[in-house]
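User: Some background: our group keeps a shared notebook of sequences we're curious about, and every so often someone picks one and asks for a predicted structure to add to the entry. Today it's my turn. The entry only has the sequence so far, pasted here. Could you supply the structure so I can complete it?
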Amino acid sequence: MMEWHFNPHTGSPFWLDCASTLGWDPRQEIHCFEDLKRFPEFQDEWLRGGPVRRWIPKGLAGKPVYVFETGGTTGIPKSRTAIEDFRIDYELFSETLPDRYFPKGANWLMLGPSGPRRLRLAVEHLCQYRGGICFCVDLDPRWVIKVIKKGWMEHLKAYQDHVIDQAMTILSANHEIKCMFATPKLLQALALRLEKEGSSLAKVGITGIFCGGTEMTSQWIREAIEE
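Assistant: Of course. Here's the predicted structure to add to the notebook entry:
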């Protein structure tokens, strides 16, 4: 790893510039986890602003590059680049999914943030890697954050209903969707909507749910499983 990132032929401009200020060669002097303390602390501000190309390793030049950003809840959004890591990560994750609940070839519903975030591409690739087709419904968490800060709870409820309406349309269109990703609040809202209409996630054909993106307490997880 040290050789890759700090070799002039494969490293990124950012880390090569960093190495030039250290006064020592990481390729020669970093041998274990403890040695990493010799580096200065990584600053969040380094991920804010551009040019973003300073993060692209020379060894991966010419490959498609994706930009992923945070939700911007603590200031200006932080940007990072990715090339193949989201595919590699979720192909490994795929090996952990039980076919009983996440059958190969099943179609998925992706109910969560897309936009400049990694999650949608990763879940879509997970679905495709397992042989399915992914149906995506977008959520803009930055707008949700603004609405909450302004205290516009009616707007927040209307936006959530708008997202759930789209999910319901897809689930009722006979697309043979068996698996889904959703954030905790959207999963709960979808389940409540289905219950209100005399149905459930199981009745519409969902056998496996991948939930994440925001905090889930142990109590919430237990209640979700029981329901």
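Suggested note for the entry: Residues 86-226 form a domain with the Rossmann fold fold (CATH 3.40.50). The chain has two domains: 2-83, 86-226.
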